[in-house]
Write a structure and sequence with these properties.
By secondary structure, the protein is α/β, with parallel strands linked by helices. The chain has a single domain, classed as Rossmann fold (3-Layer(aba) Sandwich), CATH 3.40.50. It is about 40% helix and about 20% strand. The protein has seven helices and seven strands. Strands 1, 2, 3, 4, 5, 6 and 7 form a seven-stranded mixed β-sheet that branches. Strand 1, helix 1 and strand 2 form a beta-alpha-beta unit. It is globular. The termini are far apart. The model has no long low-confidence stretch (mean pLDDT about 90). Pfam families: FMN_red.
């Protein structure tokens, strides 16, 4: 079986970056869920090609360094995306990368969405900004996304964030492999009838 190629777009602008950390953890969760399938991961750090993106927007020609990254995205079997949220939307640097992608580069490509922000108030940006963007590009957007606010990285919330990341990875792996959804356990499937405990109390 051929290796599964996973492109990871991370648009954090600082070093270190919580956006990069989220991208790495989403990637790790996806790779673990795809096991034992061999996965080749190619990370596209937008920060590293920021100047090349500006030049490409102005001239229409990508530098060799940027072209390698564009090819990695275009040829990937699936894509993980992580962007910081500014003013209730994705970063301008991230949008520049999307703008220079070839037409239909992401059509029918599964995409897992991740985003970071200072507060949970920005979480709706995933649904009102990121999802419409990738729907417009024709991508197969995963239904489960992850937004991580600053407080989510704290000791009390890190466990919950980890659970959300693992769930997103499992869901995304099922999407890209066409696996059926795991059977749900009905908590009310085996319930003692209401009349049973009362039967012994009758006199």
């Amino acid at each position: 079986m051929n290796p599964f190629h996973l492109a990871v777009i991370t648009a954090g602008v600082t070093q270190p970056s919580s956006t990069r950390l989220l991208a790495d953890r989403l990637t790790a969760a996806t790779v673990a869920a795809l096991a034992p399938r061999e996965v080749v991961v190619e990370v596209v750090d937008v920060r590293e090609v920021a100047h090349d993106l500006t030049n490409t927007v102005l001239t229409g020609f990508a530098s060799p360094e940027l072209q390698v990254r564009l090819d990695a995205i275009t040829e990937a079997d699936a894509v993980v995306v992580a962007t910081p949220i500014y003013a209730a939307s994705y970063s301008g640097l991230f949008k520049m990368l999307v703008d220079v992608l070839p037409t239909d580069a992401l059509r029918d490509t599964p995409v897992l969405l991740g985003a970071t922000g200072g507060t949970a108030r920005h979480s709706l940006a995933v649904d009102h900004a990121l999802r419409p963007l990738f729907a417009h590009l024709g991508a197969l957007v995963a239904p489960v996304a992850v937004f991580a606010a600053s407080e989510d990285w704290g000791s009390t919330e890190a466990g919950r964030l980890g659970e959300r990341i693992e769930r997103a990875g499992r869901s995304f792996a099922a999407l890209v492999t066409g696996q059926p959804r795991a059977e749900r356990i009905d908590p009310f499937a085996d319930v003692t009838p209401f009349a049973a405990p009362l039967a012994g109390a009758r006199r």
